[in-house]
Amino acid sequence: MAPLFVLLPVQARKRFTLLVAALGLGLFSGLPTAVLAQTSRQPGLQEAQSSPIPSRYLQIDTLVQRAMDQQDLVGVALGLVENGKLTYLKGYGWADKESREAVTLNSSFRWASLSKPVTAVLSLQLVEQGKLDLDQDIRSYWRSYNNAQGWKVTQRQLLSHLGGVGHYDDLPNWGEGLKRYLKNDSRPENGGADMVAAARQIFASAPLLSRPGTQYHYSTFGAMLAGAVLTQAGGRPYLEQFQARIAQPLGLTSTQPDRQGQHIPYRVSGYYRDHQVIKKRLPDDVAWKLAGGGFTSNIHDLTRFMQALLNQELVNATSSQALWQSQQTLDGKKTGYGLSFGIAERDHQLLIEHSGSQTQTRTWMSLMPQEKNGVVLMSNSEWADFGPLRNQILDALRAGAVLAP
Predict the structure, then answer these.
(1) CA 331 distance to own-chain centroid
(2) C-alpha distance from residue 111 to each of 115, 305, 356, 378 (Å)
(3) What pLDDT is attached to residue 3?
């Protein structure tokens, strides 16, 4: 069985005693671990204190460091899955540049749009339970919903961005609705993420941009609407369903809504560029759009979620195929987007991925289902471009001898 290599900074090692103990007990995926230390001289440069690091990981470390240097990134976290096994987690750079706090395995980054696949998985789970039909009018579940045109909208269309729902730039008044919602929403049990209330107050009354099914139009509001449908069809708030059917079974202990004013341990600081000057971003609330971009967690939790997708731990084979099948418009044109996942091909194999772009964060998740390999990248630098790095890491994994089952 392959070891899980975990890199922890020396200067912060005491803070992670419990995490290391959990790893040593095999609580993360049941894998034996080799815990390695990282020197305090510069984040991302490490010397082995235990088992030697396989050469492919040293190569990947070099690739990450090079990308950080070229793009002047503040902090990055990396997670790898190989042949269905969670094999490598590491932090690079700074969680907070000013205080010189290093990125560690505890550092909590925003998921941004990587939250959307969670909504799709929860939807397919309800389909398997017979509680949701992806092709039924969503008013069958949320009877008070209606769009200005009175058009039928389905959950499949919302998950595949074919629902005709506008994105931020398409709805000029959504900001005023958000202010009203945040002012009125003081219920901590909802984590600031009551999807039904948020949809009603922010955008649900806005006209659709096009008849559902006719045009692909990426929309975080559409994902939020899908989250509201989940609340109604599942009979429980969205966050409760996530905790019961995803977080608890997978042991995702750090994943939660990123709500302004709420203490989140090890939350990283976010950075943006102002005329090439790197500046710290002021905090803002994203929990209100939980179903479309409101989660935050450490690198382990997001990588564990990816591993569960590759191993079909959350949904069955039929549902996995549905998630990763390109949807099409009513006139038969394929969109290249499945149910909250991008669909592509790489070296004649299926490539599934999604990226996230939001204040304080950039994220990327790429899965190769046939190889059961996957890469997760998270950064607190809003200008991070992970596309080229993702390609290099996938190449390194393939060249580095696939792990035996």
Answers:
(1) 31
(2) 6, 12, 7, 8
(3) 52
Tokens of 346: 């790489």
Distance, in Å, from the CA atom of 166 to the CA atom of 209, rounded to the nearest integer, reads 6
With tokens 């008070």, the residue in question is 144
Indicate the pTM of the whole model: 0.87
> Please, which residues have CB within 8 angstroms of residue 36's CB and are 6 or more apart in sequence?
5, 6, 7, 8, 46, 48, 49, 50, 51, 53
Computed over every residue of the chain, the mean pLDDT equals 86
Q: Rounded to whole angstroms, what are the CA distances from 404 to 85, 243, 263, 312?
A: 10, 32, 42, 19
Q: CA nearest 292: which of 229, 341, 343, 224? A: 224
Output the furthest CA–CA distance in the chain (Å, rounded).
Answer: 64
More confident residue, 2 or 184: 184
Determine the Cα–Cα distance for residues 53 and 403; give it in Å rounded to an integer.
Answer: 15
Q: Output DSSP code: residue 114.
A: G
| Closest alpha carbon to 158 in 135, 177, 174 | 135
